[in-house]
Amino acid sequence: MNDEHAEAVRQTIQYMKEHLDEPMTTELLADLAGYSPYHFSRIFKRVTGISVRQYLSALRVESGKTELLQSPSLLVKIGMNIGLASPGTFNTRFKQFVGLSPKKFRTTTESLHRYVNQYEHKPLTWTDEEGHALPRIHCRIEAPERFRGMIYVGLFPRPVPDQKPVTGTAVNLKNRTCTLTGIPAGTYYVLAAGIPWSLNPRDYFLLSKSLRGKMEEPVHIDEGTDLAVKITLREPLPYDPPIVVNLPLLLFEKDRNNSAK
Predict the structure, then answer these.
(1) Fold of the 116-260 domain
(2) CA dihedral of residues 31, 37, 40, 41 (deg, nearest 10)
(3) For the chain, how many helices (H) and strands (E)?
């Protein structure tokens, strides 16, 4: 990756974070970075994996998550602070990205935090991964030796976790392998996040410091797919897109469905 391009994108993202309550266009950001809009758009996507518009939307929702967890502000005020002045727009965008409404997000963080922490010393088991039906993806995860926490793995339509994955799973303790099953035909991205154990609920929902991992190229799934992939978790980079989807909620829903079988 071109260091000059990476730095230009990093500075642009910092500007975006500091001006979320203001209108922003690709033309404005390209001008700040010193490139034509066309060239800047190409550079931005090459560095981050997604478009300027997609990144800005994710930043706004991530900022909304932060405000919801740190202050009792009204939803209307939070929406205005992040550039989504219409309550309907804020609610719709937030639910689309995170998986539940802003109000529900705020009121369920502590219970989901307690739910996740029960697995600090208790192994996760998934009955839906024990079969041999195709299609499937076998994942081996490489994490730093010092890492202690939950590792989430999902198959997403885009190279950023900004919506519910088509399928996903999680591993804990010393387990570093999993199998993704129940995959509809299509093209997807394998993404992973490592979240260390914490007594602070915020640490499971605001994930700017979490480990990241992904397959650089998308995977193409058909009815006979049987893949084996390796994902290496790394420290976050300044231009990584935010992880806006509610991972503890996805774990809870998978666990509930698993128990019902």
Answers:
(1) Immunoglobulin-like (2.60.40)
(2) 140
(3) 8, 8
